[in-house]
Amino acid sequence: MSSHSAETVDPGTAALWDYEHHGHDPISTRTLGFWLYMLSDAMIFAALFAAYGVYVRNAAGGPTAADIIHPVYAMWETVVVFSSVFAYGLGMTALKRGSRAGVINGLLAAFVLGLVFLGMEYKEFADLLAAGAVPQRSGFLSAYWTIVLTHGLHMIIGLLWMFIMLIQVMREGFSQNVVYRLINLKLFWHFQAIIWVCVFTFVYLKGVL
Amino acid sequence: MLVDLQGPWNPIFGRLGLLLEVHYNNPVLFFAFELSVVVGVILLFWATCARKWGYIWREWLTTVDHKKIGVMYIVVGLVMMFRGFFDALMIRSQQAIAVGPDSPGVLGAAHGYLPPYHFDQVFTAHGMIMILVAATPILVGMMNIIVPLQIGARDMAYPYLNALGLWFTVVSAALVMIALFIGDFSHAGWVGLAPLTELPYSPGVGVDYWIWSIQIGSIGTTMGAINLIATIIKMRAPGMTWGRLPVFTWTSMASNIIALTSFPVLGVTLALLTFDRYLGTHFFTVGLGGDLMMYTNLFWIWGHPEVYFVVLPAFGMLSEIIPTFSEKPLFGYITMVIASMAIAAVSWSVWLHHFFTMGAGPNVNAFFSLATMLVGIPTGVKVFNWAFTMYRSRIRFDTPMLWAVGSMFLLISGGLTGMMLAVPAINYIVHNSVFVIAHFHNMFLLIVYAAFGAVSYWFPKVFGFKLDERLGKRFFWFFTAGTLMVFIPMYTLGFMGMTRRLDYITHPAWQPLLIAEMVGIGLYAISIVYFVLQLVVSIRDREKNAVGADAWGTSRNLEWATHSPVPFYNFAVTPIVHDRDEWAWRRQHGLTSLRPDHYVDIHMPKNTAVPLILGMLSLAFGFAMVWRIWWLAAVSAIAMLIVILYRSFDKDTDYIIPAADVERMENEMLARGNKVEQAGGAVGSGAYAAPQASAKKHQGD
Ligand code: HEM
Ligand SMILES: [Cu+2]
């Protein structure tokens, strides 16, 4: 009956129970879960990008992509996002060294740069509002606002999370919970930078072509 | 307000003023309302009188035990299936009587007893409920219970997230039920036909209920998918290699990969529709740059993978039941695994077959036609594998096996009609006819059959006693008679040209078949009585029907290597896996004792009320969004954020069961198991003794 098993085990001496087995390593399990979550988040952006590809032509006589998009400004935003990710990365190397001050400094710098990015985005959208390029104007503008602001919303959540992590690092030091959350936030923050690159390429650069 | 609303709105009550316009004098609504209230009051009364609140709170509402969460998922699914059945009953009776120009109407309907607007809500609710809050929870619940047991895990990877997923699903069901009494439900079909779902064409709150119910529920399903995938990857017992993973676990994996990648697309689709309805954007509107076909594409990019999300676990269940009752290993394990993964992969590239008639042109249609037909290959492989498993075996027709074989027949007929639909030329003729309805009900029923089979198969594992066989068989036969009586006429009517979603039938020649369907629904109703009777009788006779660890005597996988009912820590000591069919291997070698040499401490997660609280807050949020009560939406959203943050500061989330306690509990369970086995309770058909005897011999030589 068991002829299909790969190796043969001697049932007379086989160990049936593992007393030492402590299950999984919590940090790596949680990191895996976060990777899986990010896959689902990636699908959200994929669907939005696919839709944007259709809507970009549907300006309905209103402003087109070329009219409202400023790639140079967006390039500066890109620089800010990447600096923030870099600062976070420095914080994480400090985590490896076990330096609490290093982590806190890295997080703080990443946080401030994130705020700068959101400020720049805020100005961009305030200008659009002032120019009447509101999401209700056309299918294109609906898609444009949605895709950029979905990324922006992720950035806000990331900043909130960073804020909480600052508190937790100060209070708890590097407990297991804090460490896995720092690692997951690193993934999240890098991921937002990658999404921003896609936004920059497909929305801003292609928009001016 | 960003959009022009018809009817009243005020800052405190939102649109609740619309309630004044609902027709509460409708006896259909009144009946539903009365039934729900009476059942609810009886349950509350019972819980209070029997002083069960503490127990319910401790053991169920705040639990993070994957088995209890799974049971609750299944209960929610069954209750909602009952609700969906009532809707079906109404659709069938309406169509049977509203035939021909002279058919009379009652209750304000020109024909039959349901006015068109109400009828449309009924079939929308029926479809949405059956797929999203009946079938999905039952299958997710089953995966929740069985997968950790099959891989020898103590729990899911994230018990707390698991509870959260359950409560979001419950909220989804609750919103549909609330829609029945407070306001109305969408009338635009379960697929949400655009632009009918846009505000100008559906100015009420029905579509909003539909949106928020699905949105919240699908977040729960996505969380469950993350949890199951991580559990399968990370929590396997030593020796449980990928090549030894039970097939049900493999199909759960495939299915949850589908869920994880497709539900976010549904989320986006609904969010864009939400923006249209709440903010006045132009995604799916007519004009100003909106694109209706974009909705259909996005919806079916989720929708088609979703049907495989529900069908794959069903395939997995068949792959467990059939070998157990054939007393043989599953034929073609490797091909079964490859077929599951192949189905998951291909299901992503066929969505356009749901709208061949859109006018995309012959090349696009040909591509999607071929892609659709490709799915048939791995599906065929599976059917042959099951057939070869049964071929020249000792088949026993216990109830689970009856359901499994029934399910196979349905798969064959449903698959064949699917192939017909996949030919664009045929599709142009039968698209949107009841032939399509018969096809997909055929497919969903196969899932229901597999699920009922799985419920009776694993029931003794979870509760420690078997379901009554005699009543179970009656349930099966009446259900099957109902299936034949409803769906054979429906296929026929499809060929005769009857289109779907008709509240009034112009063509009297169809009536005999519609009446036949009505009779079929009656048979289903009888089968439900037997189902309930079966539960009641089995619970009454639970002592007599008690079972030992291996309830069927010929079970094969690891879940049978612990006590029935399974203790909350699953395995006292983690089992080591030696074979693809570990329990069959142990039984063959006479290694069925569940007593290890000694016991060690067990690390467990603590109960928590946080998922329940988050669920209730999301219910408040969903309700507030439906009725556009902005302050309530804001308050509940902020409260959710605070609860999440509060939980993130909680360090006291686990505890240890000392080895001595484990030993005490284990001894009790071993004693119970021995008693049952001596009484002959574990023996399904005498099969238990035979392999053991041969095992002794085997060990000797
Ligand atoms: C061999 C496998 C299958 C094939 C070839 C197939 C093919 C098709 C095709 C071509 C359609 C479109 C019909 C039309 O609207 O003109 C369709 C509709 C449908 N199928 Fe299948 N199918 C298969 C399996 C399944 C499974 C496994 C399920 C569910 C568990 C399912 C559920 C549905 C549903 C719900 C619809 C109708 C959706 C609607 O318009 O409301 N199918 N199928
Ligand atoms: Cu499909």
Tally of DSSP helical segments of chain A: 6
Q: Can you write the helix and strand succession of chain A as a string?
A: EHHHHHH
Report the CATH superfamily of the largest domain in chain B.
Cytochrome c oxidase-like, subunit I domain
For the report, how would you describe the main beta sheet of chain A?
A: none
Give the beta-strand count of chain B: 3
Number of structural domains of chain B: 2
> Which class best fits the helix and strand makeup of chain B?
mainly alpha
Write out the CATH superfamily name of chain A.
Answer: Cytochrome c oxidase, subunit III, four-helix bundle
The amount of helix of chain A comes to over 70%
Counting copies of identical and different chains, the oligomeric state is heterodimer
How would you describe this protein?
The complex is a heterodimer of chains A (209) and B (701). With 209 residues, chain A is mainly alpha-helical. Chain A has a single domain, classed as Up-down Bundle (Four Helix Bundle (Hemerythrin (Met), subunit A)), CATH 1.20.120.80. Chain A contains six helices and one strand. Mean pLDDT of chain A is 91; it is low at 1-6. Helices cover 65% and strands 1% of the residues of chain B. Chain B has helices at 27-49, 53-61, 66-97, 116-150, 159-181, 206-234, 247-279, 292-326, 333-346, 362-390, 399-421, 424-430, 434-463, 469-495, 511-540, 582-588, 610-626, 630-648, 659-678, 689-700, and strands spanning 574-575, 602-605, 654-657. Chain B has a two-stranded antiparallel ribbon. Mean pLDDT of chain B is 90; it is low at 682-701. The chains are: A mainly alpha (209), B mainly alpha (701). At the A-B interface, strand 1, helix 1 and helix 5 of A face helix 6, helix 7, helix 8, strand 1 and helix 16 of B. Strand 1 of chain A pairs antiparallel with strand 1 (574-575) of chain B, so a sheet runs across the interface. Residues 191, 307, 310-311, 353-354, 372, 375-376, 379, 415, 418-419, 421-422, 427, 431, 436, 439-440, 443-444, 447 of chain B line the site of protoporphyrin IX containing FE (HEM).
